[in-house]
Amino acid sequence: MSGWIDxxxxxxxxxxxELDLGALPPGRHHLAVALTSDGMGQPVRAPVIVVKGAAGxxxxxxxxxxxxxxxxxxxxxxxRLMKTLDPAxxxxxxxxxxxVNVPGYLRNERRFPDHTDLNRVMPGRDGGRESSLYAHxxxxxxxxTLDVLVDLHTASFGLVNRLHVRADMxxxxxxxxxxxxxxxxxxxxEGVEGTLRTSLADRxxxxxxxxxxxxxxxxxDKARDARIGIRDCLEGLGMVPPDAQExxxxxxxxxRSHWLHTxxxxxxxxxxRLGARVAEGEVVATLVDPWGGLLRTYRAPKAGVVVSRSTNxxxxxxxxxxxxxxxxxxxx
Length: 332
Ligand SMILES: [Zn+2]
Hints:
CATH superfamily of the largest domain: Zn peptidases
Bound molecules: zinc ion
CATH topology of the largest domain: Aminopeptidase
Order of helices and strands: EEEEHEHHEEEHEHEHEEEEEEEE
Number of strands: 18
Distance between the termini: 66 Å
CATH architecture of the largest domain: 3-Layer(aba) Sandwich
Shape: globular
């Protein structure tokens, strides 16, 4: 058997010590930005794609993926989004980091190799430990010029998510961005200290998080929906001309959300469907012992929508059952 492999020429990225957006000419740029070096003394570089418009100035929109190193569905989303952008008729720039947590990605792990969640130590600290220094360099060398950030995540192990966005909906510009992304659900969340989203929002960046798909896998439908939504945001910002594809409108908006956890261990079966609206008191899950004896019946404490749910039946006490969104707008 021969001829079954097509070998394509490799496009070698340009290695740079930092991203200088102002110095780049309009066009498409594949960059490898040096951040740190590993135990072999080899540089760890962030893969960055920049499309800079030739049609005038405009916002700088960042799209990031894999800050959790095993949350990969944002990567093909970015690849396909960037291919749809034509610098000739674009204003401003789109700056994408396809893999934020390079060391975690290489290990198929969510966390950074020093066992820290990189998405809790942003914007990092010069002179800090491994993850903190990496975060600091990333912030300083790559993310310094953003006006808007869309940070792409997936569910974590043992959970599935509806395509949803998390955003601080009290800020009108951020809320507009969240609604334009065309996800099924929007969950208002002020943000957690140390996340990429919050660290940039503190600097005045309009920043949202999108959850699309499952860890360590590709979900083409969700990647496509997210790509169309991000493209719609660029249209809404006046950066690119409208195209034929339109994201869904009319997301279910949640003013608050809660995780429900088990209070005992056993074999968990979540009966509430993902994305379903459940009524207060409706049975959402059961827990049985290894002989099938019923231990618990869990009911929705309030009416809500199932944003995420467990897929892992092996439940210790305190295991996650589901993430319940409570519909409404913050402050309303
Ligand atoms: Zn994540």
